[in-house]
Structure formats: structure tokens, C-alpha cells
Fold:
Amino acid sequence: MKTMLVAAALLALWSGAAVAQSKTTPILGTVSAVTGTELDLTKPDGSVASLKLTDKTRFAYVTAMTVGDIQPNSYVGVGATTGADGTNTAV
Structure:
């Protein structure tokens, strides 16, 4: 599970204490190390983000889907790029 891709609006920064002190920050990366109190993510640029875990930490993960898998009332997170004409294309 160390290589599980951890996505958008990820985790430790969702904890109640973090929200009270600052805004949340989405972090994307591959889990490179995990302990009972900390998670290290290797980000796409190669840098490592160390995140403290609390009992309020929430996790999300990325999995492959097709358009047919998405139904009304599904909760999904989608990344997008914005074209020169201002339209968004899901990636």
C-alpha cells in the first residue's frame, strides 16, 4: 500500500485542528513512508511532503473508472486543465 496514490484534498490538513488554524491544501503524491503518526508523500516533482496524522485525519485515493461507473449522487474528485479558450478538460 506504500505506493497507493493519494489525491486531492488529501489528509492531515483536513483535521479539525488544521482547519481551525489554516486553510486546507490539496497534496498529490505517492506514499513513500508511513508510521502511526506521520505519512510521507513523494510529490510529482520529487520532493517529499511529511504530514502529521491525527485521529481526525481523512484519506482519499485515486482509482481508475470509466464514465459508466459514475452515477447520479456519486461523489468524485476530478482534475482538469484549462484551455486557451477557457474550457476545462478532465484529466
Remarks:
- Confidence is low (pLDDT under 50) at residues 1-19.
- Helices lie at 16-21.
- DSSP finds one helix and six strands in the chain.
- Residues 5-64+77-90 form one domain.
